[in-house]
Amino acid sequence: MQQDRHADNQPTHAESGKKGHCHPEAGCFRLVPIFSSLSEEEMQFLATGAQTRQFSKGEVVFQAGQDPGLLFVVARGLVKVTRISASGREQVVRLLGPGDFYGELSLFLPQALAATGVALQDARVCLLARSHVRELLHRSPEASLKMLSALALRIMELETLAEQLAVHPVENRVAALLLKLAAARGDVAAPVPQGTVVELPLTQEEIAKLLGTSQETLSRKLHSLEDAGLIRLQGRRCVRLLDVNRLADRAEGL
Amino acid sequence: MQQDRHADNQPTHAESGKKGHCHPEAGCFRLVPIFSSLSEEEMQFLATGAQTRQFSKGEVVFQAGQDPGLLFVVARGLVKVTRISASGREQVVRLLGPGDFYGELSLFLPQALAATGVALQDARVCLLARSHVRELLHRSPEASLKMLSALALRIMELETLAEQLAVHPVENRVAALLLKLAAARGDVAAPVPQGTVVELPLTQEEIAKLLGTSQETLSRKLHSLEDAGLIRLQGRRCVRLLDVNRLADRAEGL
DNA sequence: GCGAGTTTATGACGGGGGTCATAGTTTAGG
DNA sequence: CCTAAACTATGACCCCCGTCATAAACTCGC
After folding, report:
1. Which residues of chain A have a CB within 8 Å of the CB of B248?
2. Residue in B151, B252, B253 closest to A155 by CB
3. What tens digit of pLDDT does each residue of B115-137 get?
4. Candidate CATH numbers 2.130.10.130, 2.60.120.10, 3.30.565.10, 3.40.50.1000; the one for domain A2-157
5. Which of B206, B224, B222 is nearest to B214 (CA)?
6. Nucleotide nearest the Cα atom of A214 (by C1')
7. I need a surface site. Which of A22, A23, A117, B130 has the fewest CB within 10 A?
8. How far is the CA of A57 from the C1' of C30 (A)?
């Protein structure tokens, strides 16, 4: 089964013979915000308990119910974090892009992972040993504060998500997501230029689960936004934002 | 206006002449899990920038959009954390009981508070100076780790909330909430005895906002749970749990 | 204990959106 | 290419639940 692929955690072949511009072991989390302030020595220490793994699209990165004792840091690619309810329905609670991580709860508390991670694109993931990260957080107050910032930010995002799910109709959430994707494209806090083309990184099915809706509804809403002249669908998975202001109106928050 | 009441933060009268078993200043956050591991000296330091405030029912504890530079730690009572959308609708994103806190984002990032806090019961709240808390997290790795644990836990809870809002119908969420309240009553991880009586700490209106629904629907769902024999409503705001197992079935998670 | 205000209960109604079914479209593999 | 599989689009149906309206029950302050 796929899920024991990271149970036997011997240094994988992934770290040898990389063609990339990223060192197989130590290099990846260097890019990650939380660890960017570490000293060379600390980096080195972290690298000791780290490995880099490649996951191809569709592959399971981590599995709910397990406790692998690792922090998963996405270095490249995209990983969806989903919860599957007893009734079999799936809800994406989070998307991990480069720099994002998962597994913080089981870092600090003796808990199994509550969600499953699946690569949506080919991804490179740093697996950091829990014990090393803990040790590092002990040593480096800066790292702790960075980590705390990251978690606090996620709390706010999740509160926003909860608010949106409870209060706003699907169409607004679609608008909000498009703006968010556009904002992620342009640089931080840029005003989101009119006519930006956003590339949807996922299938409608996946996006729907992220927004807490169904593929059919998402398709309809995208088209109704197009009919309203706010966006223009071009090709399979590209959207041009025609009227950013009115989009923002619908989104109202997030 | 109420919201400047913590703008002028001179030591309030609340801290003099307390009758309680909690010292006016330093005593309160001693009970709080995040700070329980601090040394006497560190406690003392924290107390320097701290004050204790009493809030009576309905009073605003903190206000969205402000940045008071404080961490709010609830020592006693209950505070609801709500977001009010542009359309005027309100969503409770969190309940703060004793030991819970709010304001962590503005602790780490230069952000105003995203939500408003209102006391649902008379409450005692410790106001800790942001700078002192930061300093403390620098000094004490243990405190940092505790804080990280607390935030990580909240992330999981919020992910669960989001999942519930997106996937589960109201009746299930009601069931989940009742079980959660019952679990909070009995001691940690106790099996929740059959026939437990849960006291609802809020009006249906407030609970509804917490569950992302309306008062009317909540009322109906409570009664349908009663008809199904899972609970028994007794009096205005007490519920007896008759069939914990079937309740848990509906809750399925959280 | 009596009216005013709050909280809860209940019916009627309608819309948003989930599900099912199905058809059209891309993509990918042989 | 050409078929199979995956993805997207669209219609039909219907149910959950939000809203409005209103009544009942409870709570308080005089």
Report:
1. none
2. B151
3. 999 998 888 899 999 889 988 88
4. 2.60.120.10
5. B206
6. C18
7. A23
8. 22
Residues 54-113 of B with CB under 8 A from A: 83, 85-87, 89, 91, 93-94, 104-105, 107-109, 111
Report pLDDT for A18.
37
Element (H, E) at B60: strand B60-62
What is the Cα–Cα distance from A184 to B107, expressed in whole angstroms? 24
What pLDDT digit, counting tens, does each position of A14-45 carry? 333 333 334 445 556 677 778 888 888 888 88
**Which of B67, B48, B46, B33 is CA-nearest to residue B133?**
B46
| Res B21: pLDDT | 38
Of A93, A158, A166, the CB nearest to B91: A166
Q: What are phi and psi of A165, to 5 degrees?
A: -60, -40
User: Integer distance in angstroms from CA B244 to C1' D12?
Assistant: 40
Closest nucleotide relative to residue A169's CA, C1' based: C16
For residue B13, pLDDT over 70 is answered with no
CB within 8 A of B199, min separation 6: which ones?
B181, B237, B238
Minimum mean pLDDT range among B33-42, B128-137, B226-235: B33-42
Amino acid at A228: A
B221 token code pair: 């769902």
How much of chain B exceeds pLDDT 70, in percent?
Answer: 85
Domain spanning B2-154, CATH architecture: Sandwich (2.60)
Q: B138: distance to nearest CA of chain A, Å?
A: 5
Residue range A168-251, CATH number: 1.10.10.10
A232 pLDDT above the threshold of 90: yes
Residue range B48-99, pLDDT digits in tens: 888 898 888 888 999 999 998 899 999 888 899 998 877 777 888 888 988 8
B10 close to B51: Cβ distance less than 8 angstroms: no
Q: How far apart are CA A111 and CA B80, in angstroms?
A: 27
Task: Name the pTM for this structure.
Answer: 0.84
Q: How many Å lie between the alpha carbon of B215 and the closest alpha carbon of chain A?
A: 14
How deeply is B174 buried, as exposed, middle or buried, from its count of CB atoms within 10 A (0-12, 13-18, 19+)? buried
| CA pair distance A128, B39, nearest whole angstrom | 31
Give whole-number Cα distances, A242 to A194, B222, B247, in Å. 6, 46, 48
In this structure, are residues B220 and B170 in contact, taking their beta carbons and an 8 Å threshold?
A: no
- Token pair of B101, please? 């806190």
CA gap A154, A131 in Å, rounded = 23
Where are the domain boundaries for CATH 1.10.10.10 in chain B?
168-251
